[in-house]
Amino acid sequence: MITALDHIAVAVPDLEKSIKRFLEDFGLEFEGTEEVEAAKTTTAFFPLPPTSIELIHPLRGEGPVAKYLEKRGGGLHHLCFRSDNIHEDVERLKARGYQFLADEPAPGAHGSLTIFIHPKSCDGVLIELNQPGDEH
Ligand code: CO
Fold first, then answer.
1. Phi, psi at residue 5, to the nearest 5°?
2. Is residue 92 part of a domain?
3. 3-state helix, strand, coil in the chain (%, to 5)
4. Is the preceding omega at residue 50 within 30 degrees of 0, hence cis?
5. From edge to edge, which strands make up the β-sheet containing 75-83?
6. Ligand 1 centroid to 57 CA: how many Å?
């Protein structure tokens, strides 16, 4: 079941500069950065209860976010719904014809499990489903 808007992600070409903006200019709390190998991104989270802002930047200059930045510069990248049972949600949505970017949920930030629904299944919006890990 989908239980919350977990975060909204912005792809950024200059992570340090964008962290400063959200931290110093907007005055948000900064939770720190994390490298997410499976997604080839460095993420920076700014909790803004009950949701968060996630900045994403390519890890080692490669991966899907690098391609996104090449094409569009920075921009709103995805919405993330929190799930209390990601496998059940994936099964239910697959049965309704939704296409996913991967076959199985993969490790995400904060020890979570994560998978993306193809934007063409959601009016052009990239939607992530995320089941928080224990450390969340
Ligand atoms: Co995300």
1. -85, 100
2. yes
3. 30, 40, 30
4. yes
5. 33-36, 41-48, 51-58, 2-11, 75-83, 127-131, 113-117, 106-107
6. 11
How many angstroms is it from 25 CA to the middle of ligand 1?
A: 22
Query: pLDDT tens digits, residue range 58-75?
Result: 999 999 999 999 999 999
Structure tokens at 23: 């931290």
Pairing relation of β-strands 2-11 and 51-58? parallel
Nearest to 102 by CA among 39, 45, 56, 51: 39
Tell me how far apart the alpha carbons of residues 101 and 70 are, in angstroms, rounded to a whole number: 20
- Ligand 1 centroid – CA 54 distance (Å): 6
Its domain, for residue 47, covers 2-131
Which residues lie across from 95 on neighbouring strands?
Answer: none
- Give the chain's domain count: 1
Cα 79 off chain centre by: 7
The 10s digit of each residue's pLDDT in 105-122 is 999 988 999 999 999 999
The CATH number that applies at residue 22 is 3.10.180.10
